[in-house]
Design a protein that fits this description.
The complex is a heterodimer of chains A (238) and B (236).
Chain A (H helix, E strand, L loop, with lengths): L2 H10 L3 H4 L2 H17 L3 H18 L3 H23 L3 H24 L2 H8 L5 H30 L8 H32 L17 H23 L1
Helix pairs in contact in A: 1-6, 3-6, 3-10, 4-6, 5-6, 7-8, 8-9
Chain B lengths: L12 H21 L2 H4 L3 H14 L14 H8 L1 H17 L8 H53 L13 E3 L5 E3 L3 E4 L2 E4 H30 L12
Antiparallel strand pairs in B: 1-2, 3-4
Helix pairs in contact in B: 1-5, 1-6, 3-4, 3-5, 4-5, 4-6, 5-6, 6-7
The chains are: A mainly alpha (238), B mainly alpha (236).
Chain lengths: 238, 236
């Protein structure tokens, strides 16, 4: 899933988009998503995707993981496009570009903004319980992946997995999943208790002036306005 | 098991907007119904179950073109209501990573949520009558069947698949985790199944496999920590 790689990109990047404020980046991503999903011609989509790719180049994040994550939406949309190609070549390409472009846009947000920053901003507007579930799911994912990798390795080394004995493998794998869930529940509960001991009472208590505009935010705002106006102008043109 | 792998721009806006509205309304109503102070200590459990689903939904099974969801298992462990919220979280995270479109998060949550809700409700109703194992088997299989039917009906209604011929229903992951989809054929040794034959074979194999694994996990929990197979309390 490359979640840790994406997290590393977001946390350690040093571009104008990494330094820009969360609300402005969210608004820009929203403008891009509306533009891409609402577009109905190849040129408009090409320009919007081009803008996202240029932004990716500016951020200098690792392209390998992003491309690997993009294979999924690209492949899927191309299969749906097969039906559309019967209508016209452009209709097929529109389906592929919409699917890939939207995924590219959300990946841009994730690779330039740490999850915790997104949750911290959203905690001001969403129910605290939902933000907590989001935040702890994200934390739990890493706990679970670590436990699962170790346990699967030891199961293989001890001969618990045989491709020629699927029944035994399924039984052992179910026990592995059960054990991992149990261990991870305990670890997650311990982590939560540590949070509480340190004064955690739910939500992400970050006191920050989210809407304060810095020069990097200014660039993002201008870019967002260009995207919105450009998209509206192109809608009028076509 | 049923999960709509549709990219953005395919589902008509009226469908995905309705899906989002319904899903968000359901999530907000569920969250409002819980007392935050009482349910707070259960957050690690909810989050961990969501993380389990996050992993299983992105790991291909390999030998059949499906991945498991463990949504029914979540319904059994967390209870029907809160499992719906955890499924929304899972779908949203997956969509941000490009696994399914961001526009279909609502619809996916409704379908997979239905699986969790039915699994949880049936398990709760049947547990005292039939015991843990049989209740888990019935509730998981019924939940998987329901969500599969819902997904097929939905995909047919938007014209993505043809329910009469069975074309375009399956998807598969290759060795690198990439997906293939569209032409409904399934190979068992030298036998090649196509159309509905392929669809039913894969659907039944998927349902049986997820049901068996869910039963084994529930039995494991019963042995190791029986209080885990109890729905969450904390309602107002």
């Amino acid at each position: 899933m490359h979640l840790s790689a994406i997290d590393q990109m977001a946390g350690n990047g040093n571009s104008i988009f990494h330094h820009a404020g969360v609300p402005y980046k969210l608004l820009m991503v929203l403008a891009l998503l509306i533009g891409i999903i609402g577009a109905d011609n190849v040129i408009q989509l090409g320009i919007l995707i081009g803008v996202v790719i240029i932004m990716f180049i500016i951020t200098r994040v690792h392209a390998k993981e992003i491309i690997h994550l993009l294979i999924y939406p690209a492949f899927f949309s191309s299969l749906f496009a097969l039906f559309k190609f019967q209508e016209s070549l452009a209709s097929g390409f529109i389906v592929i570009m919409k699917g890939t472009g939207a995924a590219l846009t959300t990946l841009f947000l994730l690779s330039t903004t740490p999850w915790i920053e997104i949750f911290a901003f959203l905690s001001a507007y969403l129910p605290g319980l939902l933000v907590d579930i989001f935040m702890f799911t994200y934390r739990s994912f890493f706990i679970l992946i670590d436990s699962l990798e170790n346990l699967l390795r030891s199961i293989r080394l001890r001969g618990g997995y045989h491709s020629f004995n699927p029944l035994m493998s399924i039984k052992n794998m179910a026990s592995v999943v059960g054990l991992v869930i149990l261990n991870s529940f305990e670890m997650s509960e311990r982590m939560y208790k540590i949070y509480q001991l340190r004064g955690y009472t739910g939500g992400i208590p970050v006191v920050r002036d989210w809407w304060k505009v810095t020069y990097t935010d200014g660039i993002v705002i201008v870019l967002s306005l260009l995207i919105v106006f450009g998209t509206v102008i192109m809608w009028r043109l076509w | 098991m049923s999960h709509i792998h549709i990219s953005d721009g395919i589902v008509p806006p009226v469908w995905w907007l309705s899906g989002y509205l319904f899903c968000l309304a359901a999530v907000l109503i569920i969250l409002k119904s819980y007392d935050l102070e009482k349910v707070r200590y259960k957050i690690p459990k909810i989050a961990m179950m969501a993380a389990v689903m996050l992993i299983t939904m992105s790991v291909p099974l390999g030998f059949i073109p499906f991945h498991m969801n463990f949504a029914a298992l979540a319904g059994i462990i967390l209870g029907p209501a809160i499992s719906f919220v955890s499924i929304f979280v899972v779908n949203f995270v997956l969509a941000l990573l490009g696994h399914g479109g961001i526009t279909v998060v609502g619809i996916n949550t409704v379908f997979i949520g239905a699986e969790a809700v039915l699994g949880g409700v049936l398990f709760r109703l049947l547990k005292s009558k039939f015991g843990t194992t049989i209740s888990a088997a019935i509730s998981t299989a019924a939940a998987l069947l329901l969500s599969t039917i819902l997904v097929l009906l939905f995909l047919n209604s938007i014209g993505v698949v043809d329910i009469w011929s069975g074309e375009g229903l399956l998807h598969a992951h290759d060795g690198e985790g990439n997906h293939h989809h569209g032409h409904s054929s399934f190979h068992i040794g030298s036998i090649v199944l196509t159309g509905w034959g392929a669809v039913l074979t894969v659907v039944l194999a998927g349902i049986v496999l997820e049901t068996v694994i869910t039963i084994l996990i529930i039995r494991f929990f019963q042995k190791m920590q029986s209080d885990l197979v109890q729905p969450l309390s904390g309602r107002k």
